[in-house]
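ugh finaly. both done.
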Amino acid sequence: MMNEIVNMVAQKAGISPAIVNVILPIVTKILLQKSSPNQASGLLSMLPADITSVFSEKEKNEFTTTQQNYSTDEIIDKVDKEAGINDKTKSMNAVQEIMNMFQNTTGQKDLLGGFLGQATKKMDLNPFD
């Protein structure tokens, strides 16, 4: 299942599967940290075990007892730097595709506090600037 997820996200985001393998745990961790403890607990049970198994029991406990706040820019910057993409548009596309996959998998909408809409509004999509 994990390979299917990775390949689907890679194809839709226009990046290599190797980079998706790096990004997926980063985005999952941010999602769980940013969620309320109750929502994080539910997400841990709804997300595929292949994805959540990368986290230790200590991390899972932190997700279900604390909440952190990340801005859209911080999320994109973190993914861009940690995955070594160095292209904010590709990083944003990868995060969007992963969030779409999570929303489809869990049936939960508005994950990451409406990240998709915020990121798109902030991006300058005019290539003629």
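ok and the 2nd:
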Amino acid sequence: MSERTQDTKNYLPATNAGIDLKPYKEIYITTYLLKEKQKTGKKIYADIYQMNEDIIGGSGHLETWEPGDFSLKDKERLINEGTINN
């Protein structure tokens, strides 16, 4: 797990996952390593975005994929497609 603050201007992982951060100038991000792995054995991460301790969204990231960012809502689809092992 890691934690950091992030300027939202041009923050691509959120944009790639379909999250609109325009209302926010800066957000707090907590990154988690998920227990699931990619079919290739590579790692999967989840970023949770917060503002004033309220969760405003999140995205996932597939290690070594470009861009590799996905909406956390797509996790089940990625499992069904065989990209992520359950």
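summary for the 2nd one i guess: The two ends are 20 Å apart (CA to CA).
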